[in-house]
Amino acid sequence: RPRGDRGDRRKKPEAEARKPEPAQDTEQPQSAAPAAGREDAINELVTRARARMEAGDHAEAVTILQKARKAAPRHAPAAKLLGDALMASGDISAACPHWKDFLKLAPRDPKAAAVKARLAACP
Prior knowledge:
The protein is mainly α. 77% of the residues lie in helices and 0% in strands. It is built from six helices and no strands. The longest helix is centred in the N-terminal third of the chain and has 31 residues, at 24-54. The chain starts with a helix and ends with a helix.
């Protein structure tokens, strides 16, 4: 084989070895930013749902909160409020699992005692 061929093969791995690695520091904020943005989006949905509840539009509140729970199943305020919206819509049996989730997610929340009392009415 010609000497140039071996030289090219040797250079290629060296060139690949010199490729810069992504910095560890830059990856952290990028991955944290979407999580923070997602939390803001969930909080916005909960705020919108509260407004719909206050306006008496419980069905719309349920729809909004179902989206919130699907996007963030461990978001305790969304779980509680979805239970409340379902109860206000007259579907207490559908409300109960969301209240149970709320108590699992936030057992020490100041609203936990009131939610436990509501669970007593669950079938």
